[in-house]
Amino acid sequence: MDKMMDSPWVLRIIALFLACLLFFSVRTELASTDKTAMTEQVEVIRDVPVEVYYDDDSLIVTGIPKTVNVTVRGPKQIALQAKLVKDFSVFVNLNDLLIGEHSVELQYENISDKLQVTLDPAKVNVNIEEKVTQEFRVDPEMNNRLIDEGYYLKGMSANPATVFVTGAKSAIESISYVKATVTGEQGLKQPFSQAAAVKVLDRDLNKLDVIIEPEQVKVRVDIAEYSKELPVTIKEMGKAAEGITINQLTLDTTSLRLFGKKSIIDVLTEVPVEVDLSKITESKTYEFDVKLPEGATKVSQQKVKIKANVTKAEKAEKVDQVDPVEPAEKETIANPTETNPEPVTEDIDS
Q1: CA–CA distances in Å: residue 169 to residues 106, 202, 213, 241
Q2: Where is the composition biased (Basic and acidic residues) (predicted)?
Q3: Which domains does the chain have, with CATH numbers?
């Protein structure tokens, strides 16, 4: 055996055998690789942007989708590379078309010729129109149900008050509303400011595809407590003091503003002021408190002035008066010294 292994011919035969084995092994591997490379593969590349070529300074184009789906079919390696790298583009050239409606085919470039390419959609209907820019007033809006029951929306304003809208002529002509909607939490009571996006809508409240400058405005929302102005009336209480006649009571104000919940304030028809007549003793101006009706939160004046016109009765003076007495006739009194009466004859017993 050792002699055989030492023979150069044996070694040459073994080397030739190993070389043949290696050759056929590599050939099989290469054939397998080529077969794999030639295996057909289908890949779908989604949301590929569409580039549009036209005079965008003076024209507006509608109908072109922003993205399309691209399906490629071909050798696996090439198809996978196209999907992963995405070094191709989809476009449509409208530079040679006039204003109006057209049916155009989408095109692609930089895709290997070994791939079959299908675009979805492959053809689109486009409308080429004149570009128009117009200024519109912004109308702020808010859901009134966000405001607390005892308050109301006093007013809203946008800054800036107008925006410039650019779009196709037909779109600009169909604009009915330019809105800036404000949001918030339930139970709003205080004024506030908020940035709001501007929306452009047609008469059916469909959003229009236009360019808005600026896209946002600052909206000021004024919220105030609900109130209502009501006439003031005098409600007399008690009685005037003895000897006091109240001729007239005149209010210095004819109305007051009452604050509170709308459901309560709207039912009221007046603000009565209770006047204690016993406190009015002379002609002058008095102040009386305004009593809040039940459910009201405050009133524009807590006190009102009332001018009183009063007449006082004069007190009767009690003086004891003595009736004058007529002079009495003098009685004649017998006085021998002053008169000469007739002599009195006395019988004397002898």
Answers
A1: 25, 13, 17, 84
A2: 316-332
A3: 40-130 (2.170.120.30), 138-225 (2.170.120), 227-312 (2.170.120.40)
The reported pLDDT for the residue numbered 15 is 74
Structure confidence at residue 29 (pLDDT): 61
Give the list of residues 6+ apart from residue 180 with CB closer than 8 angstroms, or none. 138, 139, 140, 141, 158, 196, 197, 198, 199, 216, 217, 219
**Could you tell me how many helices (H) and strands (E) the chain has, helices first?**
5, 22
Q: What is the pLDDT of residues 319-340, one digit of tens each?
A: 444 455 444 444 433 343 344 4
Whether a cis peptide bond, with omega within 30° of 0, leads into 343 is no
pLDDT in tens, 300-319: 888 999 999 989 887 544 44
Q: Structure tokens of 154? A: 């006093």
Q: pLDDT exceeding 70 applies to what percent of the chain?
A: 83
| Lookup: tokens for 96 | 């040679």
pTM of model > 0.90: no
Give yes or no for a contact between 349 and 287, defined as CB atoms under 8 angstroms apart.
no
- Res 349 pLDDT > 60: no
**Residue 284 burial (CB < 10 Å; 0-12/13-18/19+)?**
exposed
Query: Quick one: which H or E segment has residue 101?
Result: strand 100-105
Taking the C-alpha atoms of residue 246 and residue 100, their distance in angstroms, rounded to an integer, is 89
